[in-house]
Amino acid sequence: MEQKTAANPLDLRRWIDEMRHLGEIRDVLGADAHLELGAVSQLVVKRDKPPALLFDEIVGYPKGHRVLTCSTSSPTRLSAILRLGFETSHQGLVARMRGKPAQWQAMAPQFDPVRVSEGPVLENVLEGEDVNVEAFPAPLWNEKDGGRFIGTGCSIVTRDLESGWINVGTYRVMVVDRTHVTLMMIPGKHGSLQHAKYIKAGKPFPVAIILGADPLNYLISGIEVPFEMSEFNYIGAILGQPVSVVHGALTDLPFPSAAEVVLEGFAYPGEKAPEGPFGEFLGYYAGDVGEAPVVRIERVYHRHNPILVGSPPSKPPNDYSYSKAVMRSALLFNALASAGVPDVQSVWAHEVGGARLFNVVSIKQRYAGHARQAGHILSQCGAGAYMSKYTIVVDEDIDPANLQEVMWAVATRTEPEEDFDLIRRGMGSKTDPMSIAYKHSATLASKAVIDACKPFEYLARFPAVVEASRELQEQVKAKWKDLFQG
Question: Over 90: is that where the pLDDT of 130 sits?
Fold first, then answer.
């Protein structure tokens, strides 16, 4: 039943205004969608405290047709997106995240989206000959990409043929022409499973492609929400209020009432087109040109002066690697606590490994074997087993998010023969470029657990670190503030 409501419309512009007030947004005028949007975003995101970038006056497109990138690349923006207040430190954000995913999942059934009949997304409704996907900025993000990808920070709404379950996933979308796009869904993902049912039944697969909304929508559509739970419910649990949605006139699929651009159409059985290559999250072109389902776009909804959300992968750190690092770090911390590992200080899933290949945990050692216990559980727990190539355990004086400190611990607190454990035949992935070199299996990989803690039996005799105490450091920073600013 349709109703007018105060439910959250997932308004991107409200979020941008809030971030602009905090100095988290930088306007970029006159960039070219041919490579410049991608290159500028890649270079900026590698800075310390990178801003979000709002591109306008994009070469070849009307003024006001904008693209937002780097939306989740700082702790302040990410904490705001997740409605956790404003957090400025990595570990502070991980601490705020502890236990939240389980809470949100438990609360999600209480927050069914609310259907409304009005919303900013309906300001412009195009169909027939007026449909033109190419009117919106579709960047060539990287020099070796196989096409222009309009959907990177997007959310794809689909429906299960049997149960009616609404899934919202992040799958890349490449422009074919004015009325056709490809939809690359990894086999086994929820959208792919739903698509297969329609194709087997010989029926067109309904699709609604959200190209811009509050970044929370894109962020949650890109994580592992339980099977047959709608991401809109999960988002409602985070917000503490339901999501306001309108339904597409052709597919009856829901999408946020304040979405910026929505493409509505169908993927018909047998219709495929070449797709890719496109960079992967580890920073490599792991695949070549393939085939992907084609979606015929039959209706377009968009706001005046629409804003598309871009989030292209590249060599880490990339547009979304920070958000993945924070969320996976929180999941790994929870997994260690649930397994009974005591005195875990912090965990960090490093961006250099795509938040999967290189994970570090710091502990306060309490007993012999404590470090190995933490390392092996982190490497093989449900949240950490997939692609966890390196797991490093460090003492509580080491910041797991600081690679300089972590590698100093590895260099000075390990004896390779004693402190490196090897696990064979663990969970791997073909997206790991090393699967090219070792082709015995793309789904199996070895893993290393490195105990970079001081040897437990020699804690009392281990050489002292040459460094000012934390108390003295704080006193000095307070006394000479001007030396440590900027």
Answer: yes
